[in-house]
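To whoever is on call:

I kicked off a structure prediction for a single chain this morning and the downstream step that reads the tokens threw a length-mismatch warning. I double-checked the sequence; it's 239 residues and nothing unusual in it as far as I can see. Pasting both halves so you can look.
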Amino acid sequence: MSAYRGAIPDHVAIIMDGNGRWAQARRRPRSFGHRAGVETVRRIVEDASEIGIKHLTLYSFSTENWTRPKAEIAALMALMREYIEADLKRLADEGVRIRILGTRQGLKADVLRLIDMAESQTATNSDFNLNIAFNYGGRDELLRAAAKAVASGADMSTMDEAGFGAFFDTAGQPDPDLVIRTSGERRISNFLLWQAAYAEFVFTDVLWPDFQRSDLIDALTEYTHRERRFGAADTSEVA
């Protein structure tokens, strides 16, 4: 098993991309790639926890994905159901807290029931935090956060960043230190727009179903070599 001894980010977020291309390369339907991607999720959740990462956010289904073919959407929804039903007890027993980020609008009653069950049955766990961004869009989250703030009676004219952050889906969690995107694409795709303001980004050409522990370690190693200044000047520079 590959070991990692570098700096460990507290929160890693991954844009899981490439399932469709992985399947097409094998002359199989896109649903075959999505199923393979779920197996990668299982491996990477275990690997991240073993390495010492405390928060892992996975981008699984965006608000824009509703434009995909109905058959593919149905397959993705079925995989979400299957993952929760098959893995919930094990994850709960391992001390994993599950949170589903995103809007509940447009989701069927049985999916909503499973989401509520996953969150409620793991709500007291704290060993590892698994966020699944499902029916999620960063702009939608910003709008929902603003609506929640207004509904709470908060004075938006005096609201600071910390106060506003309390209305986001990730309230109470640290912002991601590292965002990884697989498949060679180099864009954020409406993911964690508020939270990733100062995240480091690592892009890999590896398609998500092929993503291994070694690829995660490569991304962490690259992260270790980054200098994070959060907008401050580099005091080591000579004037």
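Update from on-call: the warning came from a stale cache, not from the record. Cleared it. Sanity check on the structure: Residues 70-93 form the longest helix (24 residues).
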